Amino acid sequence: MAPYRTALVGGPVVAGLAVALSIGVSGAAAAEGTLHFYNWSDYIGEDTIPAFEAETGIDVTYDVFDSNEVLEAKLLAGSTGYDLVVPTGIFMERQVRAGVFQPLDKDKIPNLANLNPQLMDYLAQLDPGNDHAVIYMWGTTGLGMNVDMVTERLGADAPLDSYEILFNPEYLSKLADCGVHVLDAPTELIPIALHYLDLDPNSESRDDFAAVEQLIGPIRPHITKFHSSEYVNALANGDICLALGWSGDVLQAADRAAEADNGVVVDYVIPKEGTLMWFDTLAVPADAPNPDAAHAMINYLLEPEVAATISNYVAYASANDAAKPFLDDEILNDPRIYPPDDVLGRLFPDRASSQTADRMRTRLWNRFKTGI
């Protein structure tokens, strides 16, 4: 059996990860050979892959990426060589339309029964019949901050629970010296900005896009970097003081800072205005060399104890209801991971947009990043 190995593809090397339990995999006996798995960086348990290999006899080549755009470019180009990939819902929706995924053989995934039906109903709006994808993890996009640095510069009365500290240049300019990172993801920032302006986050109006550009243009000089993974270590090390990032990533940064005992205190905030909620999914490319192994891995990842051990490490919410008894209390009871009903009511899902809106968003984003 080949050793577990992680290759960097579009992002930083996966760091230390948590223990996943080895449990029987239905249908695994029918699968063999090698599984080529393409996942987000820092998004699986330390022993998940080795335990799956030991349980099934399937070798795993595991590569990582750090943006949906990187994954999508490979999928649309064809012949990726991957058997299993992890697109975010908004990208998965349009990729399904483009025919890049094969339908799932649900008879090979009995653990689908463990998934929350309400969340899967939402996913069915993106993938009718849930024919091509299942939920891996879900979370929110919000603010990661070095509490001490931000408070020192903005004062104790600053609205740390609001997107105002990001979108108001009066506040953000005071944080430029300690470092500000923003996800390199227009599908994250632009809907959040629309919502902040009390506009439809899925708007395709030119006037609404113009309003977003007026909002975010003045903050560009105060943003240190656009990147979708480097902010994790940057927050943990105290190299930056604010990031627009993903919930679990920021909470991982908080854990790393605490473990390092470096005096850095990192917090994740779901702003009071509300924010984006998203789903990452498991899908099998249409040209997957080994779809049987992909189905075996999907079913394995949906085992309750396996799903729980991954969630316990990455600090993202699992859609697996059967996993809840195995979740650490600090994960299950953390409102930043599993938001209470009043916060859930202020969240909004992302949706795929038309090609016209995609072009407007791309042009806006390029102007924003380049400062033109």
Q: How would the global form be characterised?
A: globular
Distance between the termini: 53 Å
In the CATH hierarchy, the architecture of the largest domain is 3-Layer(aba) Sandwich
C-alpha Rg (nearest Å): 20 Å
* Assembly of the depicted chains: single chain
How many strands, what sense, and barrel or not for the largest sheet?
A: 7 strands, mixed
Question: CATH H level of the largest domain: which superfamily?
Answer: Periplasmic binding protein-like II
Q: What proportion of the residues form beta strands (DSSP E)?
A: 15-25%
**H/E element sequence:** EEHEHEHHEHHHEHHEHEHEEHHHHEH
CATH domain fold name of the largest domain? D-Maltodextrin-Binding Protein, domain 2
Helix content: 25-40%
Provide the low-confidence segments as ranges.
1-29
Overall average pLDDT = 91
Compute the number of helices.
Answer: 16
Give me the count of strands: 11
Q: Can you tell me the CATH class of the largest domain?
A: Alpha Beta
Broad structural category: alpha/beta
The total number of structural domains is 2
Your description of this structure?
The protein is α/β, with parallel strands linked by helices. It folds into 2 domains: 5-138 and 278-338, 3-Layer(aba) Sandwich (D-Maltodextrin-Binding Protein, domain 2); 140-277 and 347-370, Periplasmic binding protein-like II (D-Maltodextrin-Binding Protein, domain 2, 3-Layer(aba) Sandwich). The chain has 16 helices and 11 strands. The strands form 2 sheets. Strands 5, 6, 7, 8, 9, 10 and 11 form a 7-stranded mixed beta sheet that branches. Strands 1-3-2-4 form a 4-stranded parallel beta sheet. Strand 2, helix 1 and strand 3 form a beta-alpha-beta unit. The longest helix is centred in the C-terminal third of the chain and has 16 residues, at 355-370. The protein is globular and about 60 Å long. InterPro entries: SBP, Sperm_putr-bd. It holds the Pfam family SBP_bac_8. It is found in: Periplasm. Required for the activity of the bacterial periplasmic transport system of putrescine.
